[in-house]
Write a structure and sequence with these properties.
The structure holds 2 protein chains of 2 kinds.
Chain A lengths: L3 E4 L27 E5 L31 E9 L6 H4 L12 H9 L23 E5 L12 H9 L3 E4 L4 H10 L3 E4 L13 E6 L4 E5 L4 E5 L5 H7 L2 H7 L9
Parallel strand pairs in A: 3-4, 4-5, 5-6
Antiparallel strand pairs in A: 1-2, 3-7, 7-8, 8-9
Chain B lengths: L10 E4 L5 H4 L23 E4 L9 H4 L8 H9 L10 E5 L2 E4 L4 H12 L11 E3 L10 H17 L3 E2 L18 H7 L8 E4 L13 E4 L2 H10 L1 E5 L3 E7 L8 H12 L8 E5 L1 H4 L3 H9 L8 E3 L4 H8 L19 E6 L6 E3 L7 E3 L10 E5 H4 L2 H14 L7 E4 L3 H9 L10 H8 L28 E4 L15 E4 L2 H10 L6 H4 L1
Parallel strand pairs in B: 4-5, 4-7, 5-6, 7-8, 10-11, 10-13, 11-12, 16-17, 16-18, 18-19
Antiparallel strand pairs in B: 1-2, 3-9, 14-15
Classes of the chains: A alpha/beta, B alpha/beta.
Protein name (chain B): 3-isopropylmalate dehydratase large subunit, chloroplastic
InterPro entries (chain B): Acnase/IPM_dHydase_lsu_aba_1/3, Acoase/IPM_deHydtase_lsu_aba, Aconitase_4Fe-4S_dom, Homoacnase/IPMdehydase_lsu, IPM_dehydratase_rel_enz, IPMI_cat
Keywords (chain B): 4Fe-4S, Iron, Iron-sulfur, Lyase, Metal-binding
Chain lengths: 254, 512
């Protein structure tokens, strides 16, 4: 019997979506949005995120209704340019790796951004390594354009990156980042990629309203656009975890 | 912009028993928000009548109140969300009609589905999922082969009706179910229907918008969600309208049109938006040419592309499926976020130079660019008509290619057409014969091939920093394999012409 979840007529109105972030994926904020599960698959397992063990992530799991707390990322920056497409993030030859398989998830991380041209002398992941030393990726316009491969945000998260700060995103990449909860896609207001260099030390502070990027090496601060409704989804660990927390999909039967 | 544009003219399909008044113009003065009409496959005599959309001087009195007009995409999404009205920006839960996946993303999508819904979970509807292995098929790469096996297991377990399997990798013809490139197979197998919502784990799922449906690419996690629920949360996109009028020159193809448009608006020009194509030029395009147009919507960042269904659409679809469907059309007073008009008769063949699909240049201005190879294939430029066009040019030229010319039919059916169909004006020769005479490589096993590089042993992969003219869809660094490879995106005509000279070449050199 197919597991079908019937939605109550959602009253999620336009007012709830962030007016400032035209690219916000604002899925689950509304407390009115509920799934009534009629037929339910018999064995629901509790959500086990394969990310939990490996990442020393500052992600805090909390219920959907609570306001966003302060969250901080700190580390080295890796700077790229405009139109970094998903083939450069993870070349097609590595797509035989299945991200939901834990071993292959790790392998994907080791290949993150390996498609960048040779002009990028400093590699994101050192040859032979599995993880990156860079926590923050700084990009230009249209980051993540091209193919819809979810392997792209996955490999960045698997490699150990925590956030991307770009001028703008391609929509499928942004959406995949939110759905997987692998990496925070943040919007800058100016061309931060022109003012930062790979290796700069930076901190990102996410707050309700005024998030900022601080480049400790240059001493400059940059305002970031509020992540809006996408934030709690990423915090929860992605779309499924969020849907469970909000009671939209049943949790595991005891 | 004026809403009195004729280009949103819908076509009415009616059965012989209904009066014209019932299904014709009067359907547009109904007070319902969504003006739709049913097309029955089994009607005996069918007349297709062209009717203009109501003009903006329609008085509110006849409809009862001022109605908000919706674009095609808004209407499709509204209906799929069981709402009477949506506006751009709305986040809505949408019922999915078809979910497509392939060998690269299928295992991941099902892995997520099982992880989230349980090992024993069943998909929401085993007849609405179409699994099409196509990306890494004819390779010795063990993981790639394993991924096809994984999909076979899932499809067996879930009783998935449409799984176009391949087991004999040495001979594609020995696999009766195998199709090839997913977006072409979806159309050929009748899975593309006007008015529906089609999602696929591939960015070029937007190709199906040519059929007047909402079609877009999603990632594994979203697909896993759809597998379990049959629904997806979408934000309604605003629509950019592209009106293409005028007579299409004989040397121009829809690949030139879309490269022209992407060059105009840039690779992010349509981000989060719908690209709606209409106009007399569009109306005269075949379905395959319309597919090429919608295929590269994602290269402009577009969420989806749409073309209003008409007699051409209905004829194609009704020959391939008996599933009922209901086309929708943009209202005369719908709002568009941008309006572009092109006089197609004034356009010239173009290419996209390395390394971006919006790096547009006239083909004739690149004639000094020496090339190393030509690739004709992919969902963008590997369909039957694409090969017919290339063959037509080769035949007209009567010469041999100067560089290796790789031909990868998108599907089994295309491959068979290449070997069976006569090319008009050639005295009965098939594409395959013409290609052979021109010195091209033998047409290869149908798949995505080298469009995206792939495993190292993929046929026609760019393994050296060479210059390639290609009928594919992306030319970012490393797209076809080698990071320093230089890819010029072009129409089949331009690709064929370039093969003959060994330089990027305007097809008018051989077609006039």
């Amino acid at each position: 019997m197919a597991a079908s979840l019937q939605s109550v007529n959602p009253t999620l109105s336009r007012n709830l979506s962030s007016p400032n972030n035209s690219s916000s994926f604002a899925p689950f904020r509304s407390p009115f949005l509920r799934f009534n599960s009629t037929t339910v698959a018999s064995d629901f397992k509790p959500l086990v995120s394969f990310r939990n063990a490996s990442s020393s992530s500052p992600f805090v799991t909390r219920s959907a209704a609570e306001p966003q707390e302060r969250k901080t990322f700190h580390g080295l920056c890796y700077v790229v340019g405009d139109n970094i497409d998903t083939d450069q993030i993870i070349p097609a030859e590595f797509l035989t790796l299945v991200p939901s398989n834990p071993d292959e998830y790790e392998k994907l991380g080791s290949h993150a951004l390996v498609g960048l041209p040779a002009a990028y002398k400093e590699r994101f992941v050192q040859p032979g390594e599995m993880k990156t030393k860079y926590s923050i990726i700084i990009g230009g316009e249209n980051f993540g354009c091209g193919s819809s491969r979810e392997h792209a945000p996955v490999c960045l998260g698997a490699a150990g990156a925590k956030a991307v700060v770009a001028q703008s995103y391609a929509r499928i990449f942004f959406r995949n980042s939110v759905a997987t909860g692998e990496i925070y896609p943040l919007d800058s207001e100016v061309r931060v990629c022109d003012e930062c260099k790979t290796g700069d030390v930076a901190t990102i502070e996410l707050r309700e309203g005024d998030s900022i990027l601080i480049n400790h090496t240059t001493g400059k601060e940059y305002k970031l656009k509020a992540i809006g409704d996408a934030g709690p989804v990423i915090d929860a660990g992605g779309i499924f975890a969020y849907a469970r927390k909000a009671g939209m999909i049943p949790s595991a039967a005891p | 912009m004026a809403s009195s544009v004729i280009s949103s003219s819908p076509f009415v399909c009616k059965s012989s028993s209904s009066s014209k008044k019932d299904l014709g113009f009067s359907s547009f003065t109904k007070s319902s928000q969504i003006s739709i009409h049913r097309c029955q496959k089994k009607s005996i005599s069918r007349k297709i009548v062209s009717v203009m959309a109501p003009q903006k001087d329609r008085s509110p009195g006849t409809t009862g109140s001022v109605k908000t007009g919706m674009t095609m995409t808004e209407k499709i999404l509204a209906r799929a969300a069981e709402k009477s009205l949506v506006v751009p920006g709305d986040n809505i839960w949408v019922n999915v009609d078809v979910l497509m996946t392939h060998d690269v993303c299928g295992p991941g999508a099902f892995g997520i589905f099982k992880r989230e819904f349980g090992e024993k979970a069943k998909v929401w509807d085993p007849e609405k999922i179409v699994v099409i292995p196509d990306h890494y098929i004819f390779t010795a790469d063990k993981r790639a082969n394993r991924n096809v096996d994984i999909m076979r297991e899932h499809c067996k377990e879930q009783n998935i009706k449409y799984f176009y399997d391949i087991t004999d990798l040495g001979n594609f013809k020995a696999n009766p179910d195998y199709k090839g490139v997913c977006h072409v197979a979806l159309a050929q197998e009748g899975h593309c229907r006007p008015g529906e919502v089609l999602l696929g784990t591939d960015s070029h799922t937007c190709t199906a918008g040519a059929f007047g449906q909402f079609a877009t690419g999603i990632g594994n996690t979203d697909a896993g969600f759809v597998l379990g629920t049959g629904k997806i949360l979408l934000k309604v996109p605003p629509t950019m309208r592209f009106i293409l009028d005028g007579e299409m020159p004989s040397y121009l193809q829809s690949k030139d049109l879309i490269l022209q448009i992407i060059g105009e608006i840039s690779v992010a020009g349509a981000t989060y938006k719908t690209m709606e194509f209409s106009g007399t030029c569009i109306e005269n395009l075949s379905m395959e040419e319309r597919m090429t147009l919608c295929n590269m919507v994602v290269e402009a960042g577009g969420k989806n592309g749409v073309i209003p269904p008409d007699a051409t659409t209905l004829n194609y679809v009704e020959n391939r499926t008996s599933v009922p469907f209901e086309p929708v059309y943009s209202d005369g007073n719908a709002s568009f976020v941008a309006d572009y008009r092109f006089d197609v008769s004034k356009l010239e063949p173009v290419v996209a130079k390395p390394h971006s699909p919006d790096n547009r240049a006239l083909a004739r201005e690149c004639k000094d660019v020496k090339i190393d190879r030509v690739y004709i294939g992919s969902c963008t430029g590997g369909k039957t008509e694409d090969f017919m066009a290339a063959a037509k040019l080769f035949h007209a030229a009567g010469k041999k290619v100067k560089v290796p010319t790789f031909l990868v039919p998108a599907t089994q059916k295309v491959w068979m057409d290449v070997y069976a169909l006569p090319v008009p004006g050639s005295g009965g020769k098939t594409c395959a014969q013409i290609f052979e005479e021109a010195g091209c490589d033998t047409p290869a096993s149908p798949s995505c091939g080298a469009c995206l590089g792939g495993p190292a042993d993929t046929y026609a992969r760019l393994n050296e920093p060479q210059v390639c003219v290609s009928t594919t869809n992306r030319n970012f660094p490393g797209r076809m394999g080698h990071k320093e490879g230089q890819i010029y995106l072009a129409s089949p005509y331009t690709a064929a012409a370039s093969a003959l000279t060994g330089h990027v070449t305007d097809p008018r050199e051989f077609l006039q």
